[in-house]
Amino acid sequence: MADWNPALYTRFEDERTRPAAELLARVPLDTPRLAYDLGCGPGNSTALIAARFPDAEVIGLDSSPAMLESARARLPGLTFAQADAASWVPDRAPDLIYANAVLQWLPDHATLLPRLFGLLAPGGVLAVQMPDNLAEPTHRLMREVASADTWAAAIGDPAVAGRLGRMLEPAGYYDLLAPSAAEVDVWRTAHHHRMADAAAIVDWVSATGLRPFLEPLDPEERTGFLAAYARAIDGAYPCRSDGRRLLAFPRVFIVARRAA
Amino acid sequence: MADWNPALYTRFEDERTRPAAELLARVPLDTPRLAYDLGCGPGNSTALIAARFPDAEVIGLDSSPAMLESARARLPGLTFAQADAASWVPDRAPDLIYANAVLQWLPDHATLLPRLFGLLAPGGVLAVQMPDNLAEPTHRLMREVASADTWAAAIGDPAVAGRLGRMLEPAGYYDLLAPSAAEVDVWRTAHHHRMADAAAIVDWVSATGLRPFLEPLDPEERTGFLAAYARAIDGAYPCRSDGRRLLAFPRVFIVARRAA
B133-165+197-243: CATH homologous superfamily? Predict the structure, then answer.
């Protein structure tokens, strides 16, 4: 897949930073020494971690060079490095592994989450937030539009492009971590984001979930796909009483602490 | 209905206070002068409001004399008064009307919420949290057990005891308030509370949602009803990997601000 677009991603930065802050607020640590921000993106979550834990060594990791460049420009005092969360192993055992809106891109959560949890120092915390929106109209309609003859050959199986079958139920994440954790807190929140119009919803997902659908298309196909998708979104998200649209965006949060 | 039981209600105080704190954290006010805590119960939420806004006049209201007595004993420095949120009208326009886990007991939200919002001073905030768990196994099974011949005569229509049909979709609350508000924030969160066993889940709802089902029964019927309900709960909430049960508890949050 081509590299990420930090400018498009940060267009909805307030909305994207809110769950990052809510996840961090639930981390039961006072003075971690070493904290990793997995999938740090343009550094918005890394900045939050550094502000809450000013004495910690905070390191942001991402697989995207463009995102890392954007993060370094924004936070020149912090360390950023390229890494793939699926295989990453830290030099020293961290007190906090924080993974906001990244693990949903990776397969095999039943192995991945216990592996990350096992990397922690005693008393350490794994904090994870993942969008859980594959059943929402935004994502269902990507798959529906992609299954039309016009684009099916280029995009392939919409279930693959749409990353179906990776996410577990919230209780499934509890089951994975509870036997080896001192404490596991799991919750699922759907924020209802107020969007100016249907096009804003298309822009939002263009920076993330829509990328695997758009990448294989040539520019002309892309325009056609986006037009068909925008029509579908317009129908699925009706105008509210003030003329705006509400984008319900469910997310799963997991905070697991190792025994000290 | 008989009066509430503050001791039973506060048995799960940590879990019940968490949504109260999360609601308060989203209130976009710095120095409100007058704040009302509608349905203050034993005062756990009133204490949070007073701690966040130490210069505000904070008044707790509840319809239950037992809850008010418990709140006064806990917070002797604050004012508590008996009132029914459905008809309450303040002397002066408040800057904050905070209603945590109370409006779900009242009918006609389409009238009630705009009425409360209309009572605010300019720039004021209405902050509401309501359990949205009537479709959860806890509440579905209350209605199922109540429909058995043994108890149907005493309890009557389970849909009435179960308060079906009062809650709107989250977007419905947005629609009610958005046209007259400067800002409306709506979200829905399901915490997954870790419970020791099925009996703990029964205890939890015994203090709240189960009350209209238990009140009409004589002591012997109550014992039988609770036994049948406990069996149903035991089946609906399987043991997790650590032997505990997870109680998914969805709640709707609404924060609406008037233009200054």
Answer: S-adenosyl-L-methionine-dependent methyltransferases (1.10.150.290)
